[in-house]
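It would be a great kindness if you could assist me with a short task in structural biology. The matter concerns a single protein, recorded as an amino acid sequence and a row of backbone structure tokens. Could you please explain, in whatever detail you think fit, how the structure tokens follow from the sequence? Thank you for your consideration; the sequence and its tokens are set out here:
___
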Amino acid sequence: MVRLSLRRGGMVTAVFTATAVLTGGTAAFACDPRPLPIAGATAVRAADGSYQLSWSPATDVRSASVYAATHPIDKAQDGVLVAKDAAGAATVTGLAPTTRWYFVIVPGGARLGEGVAAKLVDLDGVKNARDLGGYPAADGLRIRWGTIFRTARLTPATATGRDELAGLGIKEDVDFRSTAEATAEGPDPIPAGVAHVAEPVGDPDQAVPPDPKTPPSTGDLIMDNYRLLVSNPNLGHQFVDALTHIADARQRPILYHCTGGNHRTGWMTVLLLKVLGVPDDVIRQDYLMSSGTVATYLDAAYDQVARDYGSFPAYLAALGVTDRLTRQLRHALLEAPR
């Protein structure tokens, strides 16, 4: 075990070992479609504020250095050295606890490295918060870190949570709460200068007669609502509007949420990840990370897509997801692993 000390506005101690320590938290995801110097990088933030990083080095990579920054980086010179001579894992301590940290793992004496961050986002008081970065996507690419965040409602954020929210650097907050929910809960506690965009899903005037293709209710209201997200023509444009905002560089980084951060936000995330070409097993894994979700809810929505549209691409096209919007989103959000 080696211990480093680094001063940057205070003492930062980095501890790293040759084996992974992945206790507490949930590992980030990374995808490497070709042999890379650093592959399979993950980052986990533990309850004590430390970070456990692990990766698989290529056979010719004897060691790597880890750099940290408060924004996504891929160059060593853009970060602060927090570990060196690490062989496959590093434990980093002493970083500012209310700051969102991004890491780059740089092999040997290289300048560029593999970027990674913790999948779960710490927003004290806010549930189901995470970064969609790192997921494998179309053409062997992956989603950029620090560009898209999904959460539950923001109103329960504590003072610490509000500081953490400000640290994400978001430019826009897309709110899928119904008008009644937003009125009852109050406005989102977003930093000054962040645009709030109301895209209510679930207002009374959005109701329509039952879809004849929908099977009889099982008595599970939530499952019925998942089918309605697909079959109700008034409950789709909000998600396409959000996709259009995400494609606009002026609005990123961007955060979107509903009340629980699981159902409406979950379906929005399914649509986004489908457009980006993320494999369905990864989509399901992300969906099930949220509290209050079960696989049968997503199965019901998928079944309704098949009944009403025949396929997911046909459903997306019917919603208004054009080839042009798909290209814009992929160009804006995807990058090649290094």
